[in-house]
Amino acid sequence: MDKNLLSLDLRTVEGIRYLSAHFYPRRYMERWKEIGSLSLEMASQVQGYSLQQYKEEIEHFSFFESYFPDSLKEVELPDSYISFFDKLMEDFRSGELQRVITRFHLVTEGILADLGLTILNDSSRRLGLKEFNDGIKRIIADEARHFKFGLSLISDKSYAVKRVEEIFPEAMRIVMDGKEKLSYLGYEEEKLRDMMEKLRKARVNQLLT
């Protein structure tokens, strides 16, 4: 942990912890433990970069857990987040690769994680949290590869676009439910909505080109 973290404004620290918990939802891991085994099973079937991605996701959890030992399990996430990942677990249970890719790679990683990591990267850089910022930059590089890999697995682009458009309101709801805490980091509602819309359009355009 950066030594200067605890000297920051309490609301700023709360905002960082809240957003970090979206990447390592310690309080809810037991609820979604099945995703781990199902994703490993699917990764083994897909092969290629998939197994490496699984390993990197575990490393991301380890980063947040080591930086915030114990404290992330106290962070409550909104019902919209819980519902979103309950649906992701159902997608994994279905065994349908395209369902998983569209919710996980395209929306979870390509939109939600992109937004969250952008905010954490910007905030930690401004606040001089070097250790945290270094970790976030590594995760950003990993997530870019994950999204690109998912994109390469899309077999039906029209289905993927439809799914992104269907799932996007759920993602927006998660962000809006956390807008107060994100405002502690300097991101107000209008800015968040604009960033989300730009990400949605970018992902759809990538599917159509």
Provide keyphrases for this structure:
globular, Ribonucleotide Reductase, subunit A, 0% strand
Task: Kindly describe this structure.
GO terms for molecular function: oxidoreductase activity. InterPro entries: Ferritin-like_SF, RNR-like. The chain is mainly α and 209 residues long. The chain has a single domain (5-204), classed as Ribonucleotide Reductase, subunit A (Orthogonal Bundle). The protein is 78% helix and 0% strand. It is built from nine helices and no strands. The chain has helices spanning 10-23, 33-46, 50-67, 79-94, 97-127, 130-152, 157-177, 179-183, 189-208. Helix 1 (10-23) packs antiparallel against helix 5 (97-127), helix 4 runs antiparallel to helix 5 and helix 5 (97-127) packs across helix 7 (157-177). The mean pLDDT is 96.
Q: CATH superfamily, called what? A: Ribonucleotide Reductase, subunit A
Strand content is under 5%
Average pLDDT, all residues: 96
Q: How many separate structural domains?
A: 1
Order of helices and strands: HHHHHHHHH
How many strand units?
0
Summarize this structure briefly:
The chain is mainly alpha-helical and 209 residues long.
Would you spell out the secondary-structure blueprint of this structure?
Elements: H1 10-23, H2 33-46, H3 50-67, H4 79-94, H5 97-127, H6 130-152, H7 157-177, H8 179-183, H9 189-208
